[in-house]
Design a protein that fits this description.
Elongation Factor Tu (Ef-tu), domain 3; 429 residues; alpha+beta; four-stranded antiparallel β-sheet; conserved putative lor/sdh protein from methanococcus maripaludis s2 fold; 4 domains; OB fold (Dihydrolipoamide Acetyltransferase, E2P)
Length: 429
């Protein structure tokens, strides 16, 4: 009889298997805790560094160590008196003063072309030839008909003279005399028509020689020799455009019209033609035409300037920029345009009085390039803030270059910070 197997060892094995994960869980918990500690430590170091870095800026027009507002660093200038040229600028298109599409005036076969593409030509130069032989035949026929009818007219006139003598001796009736006079008048009209036909044939023969109607430069040839041409061809044989001189059509705002008209009555206004970069000067000329109406859709008016174009830097349909000198303001007060601010009541500037910013309303006449012409509101001795207005408010304390640098840690910033001696400078426009 077999003895039952002992169960305690099996129970012990199961207990060991269930208790082995405990050390692993403890290890994971330690790892997570260590990771959280490292993250918190790094965050503290970053926050401390950011706080230390923000300390000097807080004292330079921001918040100091105690939270107080420091003086704002600004740059100031004095108004100046200058001679300021007033230029009106606009976009323009180069337009030839004359353009001619050369077409055949009679139909026929193009026999030859006497020009090179892009060649300068003068009015009257032969540029093409149509086969003239058919037109010579027509002219000869018209001349023959004219000669025949002139002979008939001469015979009729001799008969008329004889009939008049017979009628004077009452040997011919009045009715026969009148009939002969009518015959002579009819033949005379026929001869005149024949002469007109001969002149037309002669003119058509001359039209076989195609000449340039204007001075200018030829474009690309539109038809080759050997083709049939006629006056109804849309493209013609070639297009000739005048390039010297040439015109530029440009637009300006209608608000500038009155000033332009007044100055133009005194003397032609000078115009500079610039490349599209707005810097390179291509040609100089003068204003020649002001259009007679304003474009209501755009609020602009067209004007035309004429330039010599001796060096042929301008070509038809070229896009350019136009700068026209309207006038030169003598001895006007100017400040940098960056100093002028816009508020609900209009333009104003910040004026420094006893190291505090005060708002001063100004009347700006015009902004030219980088300066603003001040009509009234300022004096030449005023200190005008040209940089740093974004930190200012009425009666705000400011820091200038001439002020001594604030001590380290004091409101106004530490040396080398944004509120140091190099943060604000005084210049001139």
């Amino acid at each position: 009889m077999q003895e039952p197997s002992a169960t305690p060892p099996a129970t012990s094995a199961v207990a060991n298997e269930t208790t082995t994960p405990a050390p692993a869980k403890a290890s994971w918990a330690m790892r997570i805790g260590l990771l959280l500690f490292v993250v918190v430590l790094i965050g503290g170091i970053v926050a401390l560094r950011m706080r230390n870095a923000a300390g000097p800026r807080g004292g330079a027009g921001g918040r100091g160590p105690g939270g107080e507002q420091g003086p704002a660093p600004v740059r100031t200038v004095h108004p100046e008196l200058r001679d300021v040229p007033i230029h009106l600028e606009g976009l323009g298109t180069v337009t030839p003063l004359q353009t001619a599409v050369v077409r055949a005036r009679v139909s026929g076969q193009l026999e030859s072309v006497s020009f090179a593409e892009g060649q300068p030509v003068h009015a009257g130069d032969v540029i093409a030839q149509i086969d003239p032989r058919p037109f010579r035949v027509v002219l000869a026929q018209a001349q023959a008909v004219l000669a025949r009818d002139e002979a008939s007219l001469g015979q009729a006139r001799v008969v008329l003279e004889r009939d008049r003598q017979l009628h004077a001796h009452e040997l011919l009736s009045t009715q026969d005399l009148q009939a002969q006079e009518a015959s002579v008048a009819s033949l005379d009209a026929t001869v005149q028509a024949d002469r007109a036909s001969a002149d037309a044939a002669r003119l058509n023969l001359q039209y076989t020689r195609i000449t340039a109607p204007i001075d200018g430069r030829t474009g690309l040839r539109q038809v080759d020799p050997g083709n049939l041409v006629s006056s109804s061809d849309a493209n013609g044989i070639v297009v000739i455009t005048s390039v010297n001189p040439i015109a530029v059509v440009f637009t300006l705002p209608q608000d500038d019209l009155q000033g332009v008209v007044e100055r133009q009555h005194e003397a032609p206004l000078g115009v500079r033609i610039l490349a599209r970069d707005g810097v390179t000067v291509l040609e100089e000329g003068h204003l020649s035409v002001i259009d007679n109406r304003v474009d209501a859709t755009t609020g602009t008016i067209r004007m035309k300037a004429e330039v010599p174009n001796e060096h042929e830097r301008l070509w038809g349909s070229q896009l350019v920029q136009v700068s026209m000198l309207l006038e030169t303001r003598q001895g006007v007060m100017v400040v940098p345009d960056s100093a002028v601010q816009q508020g609900p009541d209009g333009a104003f500037v910040y004026v420094i009085v006893d190291h505090h910013a005060q708002v001063r309303a100004v009347h700006v006449d015009r902004i030219v390039d980088d300066v603003a012409i001040i009509h009234d509101g300022l004096a030449l001795t005023d200190d005008i803030v040209s940089e740093g207005q974004s930190r200012l408010r009425p009666d705000a304390e400011v820091h200038l270059e001439s002020d001594p640098p604030p001590p380290s840690g004091a409101p106004g910033g530490a040396p080398g910070g944004a509120g140091g001696g190099g943060a604000a400078r005084r210049g001139s426009p």
